[in-house]
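User: Could you write out the 3D structure of this protein bound to S-adenosylmethionine? I've included everything you need below.
Assistant: Certainly. Input first, then the structure.
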Amino acid sequence: MHFLNKLIWPIPALLAWGLAWASFAVGQVWLPWWGALCVACTCALATSLWGGTWWRRVMIALGFPLSWMVLAAGSFPAWLWLLPLALLLLVYPINAWRDAPVFPTPKGALDGLAAHIALAEGAHVLDAGCGAGDGLKALRSAWPQARIYGVEWSWPLRWLSALRCPWAVVRRGDLWQSSWGDFDLVYLFQRPESMSRAAVKSLGEMRHGSWLVSLNFPIPDVAPVYVAELEDGREVYAYQAPLAEVDYDSVLSDEIAGMLPVRPQGIVVQGQSLYPRKGRPGGNMHRH
Ligand SMILES: C[S@@+](CC[C@H](N)C(=O)[O-])C[C@H]1O[C@@H](n2cnc3c(N)ncnc32)[C@H](O)[C@@H]1O
């Protein structure tokens, strides 16, 4: 399906809208109208991944429900106009917007890393923020002997990645609240501003010798053990625990520079909440 987001815009959108309308029409043969509507909206959600950018995905996801509502206007209750908003919130819950919207890891992006990072049979590998499952697939392709885990904030994306990657253990949750201590390798494809947080988590939780791998975004001021260049020019950075010391002030200034409000509960490291937001439950900000 990767070729679809390379097609000239708006061809992916036209295909996606056509598919959603077709599934609505076919769905009505077996299902009540609302059942067919749910099927078509699910189709709109899934095909939104064909958009190469965030705005294109929004347009693809909203095309069917909006056009259906315009056509059906007058014959349904007013609250149904909230449907497109609900769809949007389902794909990109507000919490996940702060870190990274869905951009999939390209196929085979991690191939070749195994020559530098040897993982034992049954090693535990986590895709932290696994989106629609492309990172899970890339991890499996690179380390087929490993046990692959994923954590994802968005319910439908968690569901989609579990469907696409039945061999992985995928759960819904916050990657900053989950422990990274049980993993031999944690893979991230988030945002530049997320990387100093990742350093804090890694330093506090990851076992000596385990790996933190990041696509596209390096950890500031930490030298990677290995850097691989992808065909599209992006880089994959591999760090081995323990990382060098992480500076409290630089993490905080990265959070502010990235306009990522420190989340109310902070970043949980070894069960302890670091950087809790000022004036919120969890107490005032203090140094650890
Ligand atoms: C750029 S996408 C990468 C998806 C996947 N790892 C891949 O490489 O194909 C980032 C994903 O992280 C998820 N995410 C962002 N913040 C999160 C959080 N705090 N907890 C769990 N998932 C999160 C987003 O919903 C999105 O699906």
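DSSP finds nine helices and nine strands in the chain.
User: Perfect, thank you.
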